UniProtKB/TrEMBL annotation, chains A, B:
Domain Aminotransferase class I/classII large: residue ranges: 182-547
The protein's name: alanine transaminase
Catalytic activity as recorded in UniProt: L-alanine + 2-oxoglutarate = pyruvate + L-glutamate
Coiled coil (UniProt feature): none
Similarity comment: family membership: Belongs to the class-I pyridoxal-phosphate-dependent aminotransferase family. Alanine aminotransferase subfamily.
Lineage, opening ranks: Eukaryota, Metazoa, Chordata, Craniata, Vertebrata
Region (Disordered): 25-75
Organism: Maylandia zebra (zebra mbuna)
Database matches in Pfam families: Aminotran_1_2 (PF00155)
Biased composition (Low complexity): 42-62
Cofactor(s), by name: pyridoxal 5'-phosphate
Length: 560, 560
């Protein structure tokens, strides 16, 4: 180790001593705190024990947050005391990773919640986290049937409890009989439980009007994110101008940019057309791939439909054109279809890439490589915490498939409760079964409430001068364009912030509303946006939208 | 694309057409099939619906397993038809990954189970998968209290059910109150639920006789594997001779070699001393690191204690020596302690690296970087399917910690049911609580049965000439050394197999017993071993051990 290198380390270690607690903590908080959401439905429970208050986490910080004691720096033992792992010696690709959905603004929101809970005065009574599609955290109720089956699978003694409906019991039995030792505590096959993959296959066949689905093409995953990252991992190779490039929409869901950064792949941006309701133009795809071929090897095209954060729903024609484009340009298609039940707008309909591909005839159906992703986290379920999901893989080379299964086996298996939940999503109560009525009632209520909130959000935001919002045709977010006055842009730039980050931070501090700046998803230069979920309960959403309206007017006035 | 390259692709595609179904399937099967384990405890359930028989998965294979139709290969459309992703164009580091615990021998075991279920005659009635530490699949019962709480968390309506004990209800309430919207369906903080991290911290403080633990150093993970891979990911950097090297024991648990291969890090082997009951010698560590410094940059040292696959339990003295060595050589310590409750041998005791580190005084306690890993999958719980785990991180640079949290946030959060289960493991029923008695009874029964089976396994195997087995001091496996006759080694080498793979394959075909060859874990050249779990019920384990004995004698005779 060079003296210079040691110097860097020592000075860094000294600097660490001067980091304030908040500064240290801000960088490390997650997105939620225990019982922190005032919207939680009430339980007949004793009060939360003091041991789980955030206080303790803070109180003992000093104990292990010392960096290296200064007085020891000069001893000759220095070599053994300088840290092995520092910001300068860690994996450089990890440093490049960014994920705005849980970025600095969310960390500040968590801090504000702590400060409120500690009695600090704020211009608002609660923090509203509209930054992430976390339905249950916003008060959405789980589907009763799903939770009954999960309870039965967790504690099979309940199978003899007469209060549980028979269809819930038979689902639970089928799942348990597919588990080693009839227990969700056993590892499943790395690809997922066979019977669940078969149920997924039949669901896809029903969804796609009878297009055949082979259960052997289904891989259960730890949420859709896991499947997407795994597929990207398989695709990455080459160096320099032969390095794998992956086309992603702009605006995008930042999992894609984060995964590509970590894998050291080349991100190829294609811009969605905001003027045409965030539609996808083939000419733009062509421009992007042509330019990219000069500096990398474009191998995959990612589509998010319905769109996140942009909420558009693709037409069948557009999907056909995308498939032709992928075939012509030899691109592996990745279709992120986790919002497939979240379609609200008149005349809009979800078309799966799989279905369209097969309807285009053998020339495409037998050659174009496609991976499509689904999840238990969105739609009417909103079961994010269970980390359930699947991917279907079409036309993948058999040897690559073997490699995929081998790779998955290292992580043993996806969480079995998430697999069970995925099974229920693709195999819900059928007409004639005891739980059918309540299931349909609950699902319909959730989806129509979302449709109403999508419309409401678009309408209210479009009444604000300086905010223009495309129709929220699907998914769970609005991504309105906002006008930020020159003076505000200037002030933001001077403080080294993106103008929309500056805008959202100000909104958070003044209103307690936590949104994600458009810069976290990507946007055309000079345009500014934010992403806001439409998930809060309607009455709360109305208040939230009015607060946004008032803030925008105040902000515009202040900086004009 | 060059003509030569196209030729490669076409010939590969043509070759794909000739792959037999079994051959294709063998490479892709997982480790289990629905209801396939005859040891499953019986449920009062309807018979498994035919739709979930493996037949369907096979029947439709032909539909999507065509590779590229031959007659189309010659058309000029070839460019668009050659696959984007092939074995030659996929990520080369993924190809290097190996994971024997679910390798070819397990895939063959799954095939044999299918063949048995389809009525094919075999010299055995059932396949016994002793290849993996999957307790529930081997008939071990889950802890009642844990499953009651999970059922309550899954379906909170049960909180009003008087048949559930009060302590289960209060645990469930505490967990739910820490979840957004009081639902396990919400995302948690990326680092894990605050109250769970606080319970983990208090568990560690109790376990380590009062050594302080900061909840902010606790990260909940998706099983221990997730934490281990994440830590390795942070550590990898540099190229050529400055590339990060990581020291792992040989024999090792193959997650380590697999992760290092995928990350492109350098695997540095240090050999455990089989003659001294798989003990760890510092001189061997020194040899390994000295040699490694010539071709890479050793930055981390991985320890598995109690040992997997080797079953040794490290002495306190040895751990102290390892810590001194790590400090002297500036290595980040990774302590895999997932078997911390699985200690059976007289005079053996589990000592955590954290405790020993802090007892060595500030010179070490404040400087040596340590990550220690635990899981819900092993010990007396055996809840593998829930993918619960945590890691504790000591002396990590604050900026790196921020990067770690950022990296974890991309995957949103570990499965919440797994976090809940981890919470119960570290915060089980206490004396005076209604479930305390049954909890202690169940835990003791499981652990003493394991102790008995550990002894039994060692004793029986050591009665066999040509098999020598070290005491199974801890963990869940025996890793006996086997003598393989020259003739067998020759035949194996001629068929391109490792001699112990040849041996285990033969045992599987003749007895239905599925073991993992020592070559999958690493072993000294010229020595051969297999790993066998001690998990089967005692009566079944006796039968299994006798079958192994008979097979070894037959095999030895046949090849001498």
């Amino acid at each position: 180790m060079s003296a210079a290198r040691m110097q860097v380390l020592s000075s860094r270690n000294v600097r660490l001593l001067s980091r304030g607690r908040n500064e240290v903590f801000a960088g490390r908080s997650g997105a939620q705190r225990p019982g922190g959401d005032p919207r939680t439905r009430s339980l007949t429970c004793p009060p939360l024990s003091s041991s789980s208050s955030p206080g303790r986490a803070l109180s003992s910080l000093s104990a292990t947050r010392r960096g290296l004691p200064k007085e020891k720096m000069s001893e000759n033992g220095i070599m053994s005391r300088a840290k092995v792992l520092t910001i300068d010696t860690m994996n450089p690709t990890v440093k490049k990773v960014e994920y705005a959905v849980r970025g600095p603004i969310v960390q500040r929101a968590v801090e504000l919640e702590r400060e409120l809970s500690e009695g600090m005065k704020k211009p608002f009574a609660e923090v509203i986290k509209a930054n992430i599609g976390d339905a249950h955290a916003m008060g959405q109720q789980p589907i009763t049937f799903f939770r009954q089956v999960l309870a039965l699978c967790s504690y099979p003694e309940l199978l003899s409890d007469s209060t549980f409906p028979e269809d819930a019991k038979s689902r639970a039995c089928r799942i348990l009989q597919s588990c080693g030792g009839n227990s969700m505590g056993s590892y499943s096959a790395s690809q997922g439980i066979d019977s669940v993959r078969q149920d997924v296959a039949r669901y896809i066949e029903r969804r796609d009007g009878g297009v055949a689905c082979d259960p052997d093409n289904i891989y259960l995953t730890t949420g859709a994110s896991d499947g997407i990252v795994t597929m990207l991992k398989l695709l990455v190779c080459g160096e320099g101008t032969t390095r794998t490039g992956v086309m992603i929409p702009i605006p995008q869901y930042p999992l894609y940019s984060a995964a590509l950064a970590e894998l050291g792949a080349v991100q190829i941006n294609y811009f969605l057309n905001e003027e045409k309701c965030w539609s996808l133009d083939i000419t733009e795809l062509q421009r992007a791939v042509n330019e990219a071929r000069q500096y990398c090897n474009p191998r995959a095209l990612c589509i998010i439909n319905p769109g996140n954060p942009t909420g558009q729903v693709q037409s069948r024609q557009c999907i056909e054109d995308v498939i032709r484009f992928a075939a012509k340009e030899r691109l592996f298609l990745m279709a992120d279809e986790v919002y497939q039940d979240n379609v609200y707008a008149e005349g809009c309909q979800f078309h799966s890439f799989k279905k369209v591909l097969f309807e285009m005839g053998p020339e495409y159906a037998e050659t174009v490589e496609l991976a499509s992703f689904h999840s238990t986290s969105k739609c009417y379920m909103g079961e994010c915490g269970f980390r359930g999901g699947y991917m279907e893989i079409i036309n993948m080379d058999d040897e690559v498939k073997d490699q995929l299964t081998k790779l998955l086996s290292v992580r043993l298996c996806p969480p079995v409760p998430g697999q069970a939940l995925m099974d229920l999503v693709v195999n819900p109560p059928q007409p004639g079964e005891p739980s059918y009525g309540s299931f349909i009632k609950e699902r319909t209520a959730t989806l129509s409430a979302l449709a109403e909130k999508a419309k409401l959000t678009e309408q209210v935001l479009n009444t604000v001068q300086g905010i223009s919002c495309n129709p929220v045709q699907g998914a769970m977010y609005s991504f309105p364009r906002i006008t930020i006055p020159e003076k505000a842009v200037k002030e933001a730039t001077e403080t080294g912030q993106q103008p929309d980050m500056f805008y959202c931070m100000k909104m958070l501090e003044e209103t307690g509303i936590c949104l994600v700046p458009g810069s976290g998803f990507g946007q055309k230069d000079g345009t500014y946006h934010f992403r806001m979920t439409i998930l809060p309960p309607t009455d709360k959403l109305k208040i939230l939208l009015n607060k946004v309206k008032e803030f925008h007017q105040r902000f515009t006035q202040q900086y004009s």
